[in-house]
Design a protein that fits this description.
Length: about 200
């Protein structure tokens, strides 16, 4: 990284921020300068918040979400629907579905998808924990909400076979045309998935 003419602490902060997704060295420098200009209102509260988060954040023992409580706020929420279990790859996917209000049941974070290229095998994922949850008597449906790519599809097929041991219905989220999407602008894979997921009107 080019020298910034700043002290080692500031350079270390720039280096650390540049490792975040979407932030390169230039964006990290701008972010650090912005934080420094607002030291009392932004930098110091951010530092305290990050220290507290590092000390308190943990992985939910039930679903794999991250929170400062265990079980997490979603698992522990009163009135949460208990019969469906939505399987996602990562915590960010869980947050996206929850933000959209798309699922009012339980979640399970798989920890990724199977990938021959990346060397991700079944034992690298939380499949045993998923099966144990699916075998609970109150669970009647497992929804596979995995990425619409080759690895996501192969993982869904694998999980379908594994979950056959449990007395549950296994479903997958629909793939296809997004709300407001125009057919002319969609890729071939999306159009194909939309046709395969067609339903009666």
């Amino acid at each position: 990284m080019p020298h910034t003419s700043a002290g080692p602490q500031i350079e270390q902060l720039i280096t650390l921020l540049s490792r975040l997704p979407g932030l390169g060295p230039r964006s990290a420098r701008r972010a650090v300068l912005h934080l420094i200009r607002r030291k009392e209102s932004l930098l110091e509260p951010l530092g305290r918040s990050m220290i507290e988060a590092a000390q308190r954040i943990q992985s939910c023992k039930q679903c794999g979400n991250i929170d400062v409580r265990n079980p997490c706020a979603i698992c522990d929420a009163p009135g949460r629907e208990q019969t469906s279990l939505c399987v996602v790859e990562q915590v960010g996917d869980l947050w996206a579905l929850e933000r959209a209000g798309a699922h009012r049941g339980r979640y399970f974070v798989l920890g990724g998808v199977l990938s021959a290229i990346d060397g991700v095998r079944p034992e690298d994922l939380h499949i045993d924990r998923l099966l144990a949850l699916a075998e609970q008597p109150q669970i009647t449906e497992v929804i596979l909400a995995l990425s619409a790519n080759v690895d996501g599809a192969s993982t869904s097929h694998y999980l379908s076979d594994v979950l056959a041991k449990a007395n549950v219905t296994v479903t997958s989220i629909a793939r296809g045309v997004p709300v407001g999407g125009e057919l002319d602008y969609l890729d071939d894979g999306t159009l194909s998935a939309a046709l395969q997921s067609r339903r009666s009107v």
